[in-house]
Design brief:
- The protein is an alpha/beta fold.
- The protein is built from 14 helices and 11 strands.
- The strands form 2 sheets. Strands 3, 4, 5, 6, 7, 8, 9, 10 and 11 form a 9-stranded parallel β-sheet that branches.
- Helix 3 runs parallel beside helix 5.
- The chain is globular and about 55 Å long.
């Protein structure tokens, strides 16, 4: 079980926000396989204030998906508070504040992970959002901006905990590392020791159910936020629920899920765009195919919905 404010999950894991990926279609598939909470793609606060944002299926919540969370990115406390309030009114059940994103264009604009350099700004944003919404507010952090000092991380955590943050989601890499090297999950052991009364959720390098189970057990954290490991791999959620040894999905099972995901995807983006836009998911799904490269090339060749579905049937034995 995992309790985040007034949201109670029956298992200690969920699907994290994935920029460019976690639209309604991906979230629906994740829920089918047992994810008790999903997040929409990362949203820039100033963009949220423009109504057109919610015409994009990456960001609009469905009536059938609760609880669903929104992750917010920005540098101005007032704008972040207004955006959080609008997201809440739009139907999101939880607001996650992103102080972890290592993308260069985000860091250059002094957002995301850059704000680990400015604890006062981070806490000002948190306090403004906390006052603006009536739902759980969480905070995603990396363990430092670079490898020079962790003082800002501990300062932010201490002040956020004092401000009754509902959970801290920690990716144990530095911002400058981006996604290179390995996530230092041992660091999370110390985070949980320092803040035993706060929900601590780990993130980073969670690509198998076995790894997730071991990391939660070995560090004592309360749960895991599964991000890149869920792309093209919704089976990770059902395996975690089952608690059994991993059994790879059969070709037929893979094909059925790909077809369903693509059907949802095409309804969101339209038949003309779906085959091309879905390629980023095809890459991930094809990792499970015994002829990975050939299957990927075949799916990439599709120009229409009909072609794509015909290729899936051919390569996955449907």
């Amino acid at each position: 079980m995992l309790k985040i404010g007034n949201i109670i999950l029956d298992v200690p894991f969920f699907q994290a926000s994935l920029s460019g990926y976690s639209d309604y279609a991906m979230r629906a598939i994740a829920r089918d396989f047992g994810a008790p909470l999903t997040f929409a793609g990362v949203m820039l606060a100033k963009s949220v204030l423009h109504p057109r944002l919610f015409r994009n299926p990456l960001f609009k919540p469905g009536e059938d998906e609760h609880p669903v969370g929104a992750q917010l990115l920005g540098e101005d406390p007032e704008t972040m508070a207004k955006a959080a309030n609008l997201l809440r009114k739009t139907g999101y059940d939880l607001i996650d504040l992103n102080f972890a994103c290592p993308t260069p264009k985000v860091v250059r604009r002094k957002r995301g992970g850059f704000l680990l350099n400015d604890p006062d700004k981070v806490i000002a944003i948190y306090n403004a959002v906390r006052e603006a919404v009536d739902c759980p507010v969480t905070m995603k952090l990396r363990m430092s901006f670079d490898n020079q000092s962790y003082d800002n991380f501990w300062d932010i955590c201490s002040r956020a905990v004092a401000g009754k943050v509902d959970a801290l989601i920690v990716h144990p890499r530095t911002v400058c590392q981006r996604f290179t090297g390995s996530a230092n999950w041992a660091f999370l052991t110390e985070v949980k020791k320092q803040f035993p009364g706060t929900i601590i959720i780990g993130s980073g390098d969670l690509f198998s159910a076995e790894t997730i189970k071991n990391n939660i057990k070995n560090t004592g954290v309360d749960g895991a936020a599964i991000a890149r490991g869920a792309i093209g791999n919704p089976w990770i959620f059902s395996q975690l629920r089952d608690g059994k040894d991993f059994v790879p999905p059969t070709l037929t099972q893979q094909g059925q899920v790909i077809s369903k995901h693509f059907d949802l995807f095409s309804k969101l983006y339209g038949d003309k765009k779906a085959a091309r836009y879905f390629r980023k998911f095809s890459v991930a799904y094809c990792k499970h195919h015994p002829q990975r490269k050939k299957a990927q090339e075949a799916l990439f060749s599709a120009k229409t919905t009909e072609e794509f579905l015909a290729i899936v049937k051919q390569w996955y034995g449907l």
